[in-house]
Design a protein that fits this description.
By secondary structure, this protein is an alpha+beta fold. Helix content is 47%, strand content 15%. The protein is built from eleven helices and nine strands. It has a four-stranded antiparallel sheet, with no helix packed on it. The protein has a three-stranded mixed sheet with strand order 1-4-5, with helices on one face. Strands 8-9 form a two-stranded antiparallel sheet. Strand 8 and strand 9 form a beta hairpin. The radius of gyration is 21 Å and the shape is globular.
Length: 387
């Protein structure tokens, strides 16, 4: 059964370089990732060598400057990769965290020495990046974290724990949110970089079992008296962590929205193909009025979402995407992704509840989108502050 995709047209923000990158990403994902997704889901992580393979092809850090080992492109390449992972049904390689988020923390705020030390190895896949924000008792309220990095001479001593960390099992470069001044809320927060292969006192807890995204290694991390060189303070100045996080969150939220729109389109494509092929009461399921009307509604949602997100990406490429619009994009597209997945699964009947059908994975994978990157309730709170 071939899904007739309504998203074949080139996005308005794309160009020839982006489309060449898309072709490369598609071939890699279809050959090296998609065939292994079921096995990765069972083992709860991808094979480590896939990171190196992606790095060799130039699929990691594509929008990091060439002088630091990256591809020298723009966010358009990050968006392309996010879309193609959805379309290939190969979401487990955590490039959005590694390339779009962690690498850009280092590129935006790192000292020259830090950028030359870490970015080339991230681009090659030698280092796998993660960002450790969330703690067992703290979700979106970053100012309430309890993880501490206390300066002692030329070192920081890091103590605390983190949970729900994407790439957590395989990551060996962890940008960690910690209090360098526990007496201060926002101004006491700094970002310290932990090279896990180089320190004692770091450990990983269990890989967390999730209702979706089974092949994505999400883990608990523990820091017990980890000694870090003072040179591992991102940017070299204490108290900048909260501002650094806030400045990068719009891009993080945008890449989630890009993935959400691709998921809406892919979910609709699979459902159209199924309802036109599946027969009930002597005719295709698509021929029932309820089916056609529901699919017409979802096709409209997909079109509106695509136009909106393409505009957001274009604005971001011009450095014009503001905080409330990024928050609007994140909450609305992820809500629509969940709604569309739920409506579409219904047309598959009992088969939609079976894991061998992609629609079931689209349904369970969608649900986290309304939670990470800032819950959708937080997005609405942010938007309301600008009204």
């Amino acid at each position: 059964m071939t899904a007739a995709r309504p998203h074949a047209a080139r996005p308005t923000w794309s160009d020839d370089d982006s489309e060449a990158f898309r072709d490369l990403a598609r071939r890699f994902l279809e050959k090296e990732c998609a065939p292994h997704e079921e096995r990765w889901g069972e083992q709860q992580h991808i094979d480590r060598e896939v990171w190196n393979q992606a790095g060799e092809l130039g699929l990691l850090c594509p929008s990091i400057p060439i002088e630091y080992g990256g591809g020298g492109g723009t966010f358009a390449l990050e968006a392309v990769l996010a879309e193609e992972q959805i379309r290939a049904l190969a979401p487990s390689l955590g490039t959005a965290v590694h390339s779009t988020i962690v690498a850009h923390y280092v590129n935006a705020y790192g000292t020259e020495e830090q950028k030359r030390r870490w970015l080339p190895r991230m681009a090659s896949g030698e280092l796998v990046g993660a960002v450790a924000m969330t703690e067992p008792g703290t979700g979106s309220d970053l100012q309430s974290i309890t993880t501490k990095a206390i300066r002692t001479g030329d070192e920081y001593v890091l103590d605390g724990s983190k949970t729900f960390i994407s790439n957590g099992l395989l990551a060996n470069l962890v940008v960690t949110v910690a209090k360098t001044d526990p007496a201060d809320a926002a101004k006491g927060i700094s970002l310290v970089v932990v090279e896990t292969d180089e320190v004692d006192g770091f450990s990983r807890g269990r890989v967390l079992k999730k209702i979706g995204q089974h092949g994505q290694d999400t883990a608990e991390l523990f820091f017990d008296g980890v000694h870090l060189p003072a040179a591992n303070l991102l940017g070299g100045e204490e108290g900048q962590g909260f501002v650094q996080l806030m400045q990068q969150l719009p891009q993080e939220r945008l890449v989630l929205a890009v993935g959400a729109v691709a998921a809406i389109e892919e979910t609709l494509a699979h459902t159209l193909a199924y309802t036109k092929d599946r027969h009930a009461f002597g005719k295709p399921v698509f021929n029932f009025q309820n089916t056609r009307f529901k699919l017409a509604e979802m096709a409209t949602t997909a079109k509106i979402a695509r136009v909106f997100i393409d505009d957001c990406v274009a604005k971001h490429l011009r450095a014009e995407l503001d905080i409330p619009t990024a928050s609007m994009a994140k909450w609305w597209t992820t809500q629509m992704q969940c709604d569309v997945a739920d409506e579409c699964l219904q047309f598959f009947g009992g088969y939609g509840y079976m894991q061998e059908y992609p629609i079931s994975r689209m349904y369970t994978d969608a649900r986290i989108q309304k939670i990470y990157g800032g819950t959708n309730e937080i997005m609405k709170e942010i938007i309301s502050r600008f009204l």
